[in-house]
UniProtKB/TrEMBL annotation:
Annotated HTH marR-type domain residues: 25-161
Keyword entries, A-Z: DNA-binding, Transcription, Transcription regulation
Protein name: MarR family winged helix-turn-helix transcriptional regulator
Superkingdom of the source species: Bacteria
Entry-linked SMART domains: HTH_MARR
InterPro entries (UniProt xref): HTH_MarR-typ (IPR000835), MarR/SlyA-like (IPR039422), Tscrpt_reg_MarR-type_CS (IPR023187), WH-like_DNA-bd_sf (IPR036388), WH_DNA-bd_sf (IPR036390)
Length: 171
């Protein structure tokens, strides 16, 4: 079989048909990704300001989302408390650092339940205070009014539901 040049081995991609709605949706996806990264940067900056360098922003968000719940590692993902792929690693680190307590379930010894320690609650409170300050600033500036943030959240929940249905359909 003759060798192909790199240009021949990859079929040319034809442009997808796009309309204004598609373009707006794609822009929303880019904004959403940037917002997530900026949120992590804000958490990182807050912890640097407080002189706390032991946690990554992802770990701080895991602590924040865990809150007062006591769940298994699997439930962290299924309940939307953690979106990453390395939940076991981050939980292990948080246990080692003293932010999360873990214990085996009585009913199923393979399963581990996790909850925040007092030190973890303090981190959660730090992140909550940061987000409250941001919400107050956004409220005062009027950013949350047009369109109302509640309507924006409703729209994002609809997108979330659509995506979840797409994933269920695949499997």
């Amino acid at each position: 079989m003759p060798q192909r040049s790199p240009a021949q081995s990859v079929p040319a991609l034809r442009p997808l048909p796009r309309n204004n709605r598609t373009e707006s949706y794609l822009e929303s996806l880019q904004i959403l990704e940037r917002l997530h990264r900026l949120m992590l940067d804000l958490v990182k900056d807050e912890f640097e300001r407080l002189g706390r360098s032991d946690l990554t922003p992802v770990q701080a968000m895991l602590i924040y989302n865990l809150g007062t719940a006591e769940v298994t590692a699997g439930e962290l993902r299924s309940r939307g408390m953690y979106q990453g792929s390395n939940v076991s690693y981050n939980l292990k680190k948080l246990v080692e650092l003293g932010y999360v307590h873990h214990e085996r379930c009585d009913m199923d010894r393979r399963s581990v339940r996790v909850r925040l320690t007092q030190q973890g609650q303090e981190v959660r409170d730090c992140v909550a205070e940061l987000f409250c300050r941001h919400a107050e600033g956004l409220e005062l500036s009027g950013v949350l009014d047009d369109p109302p943030v509640e309507a924006v959240n409703l729209q994002w929940r609809r997108v979330e539901r659509f995506w979840a249905e797409q994933i269920r359909y695949i499997y």
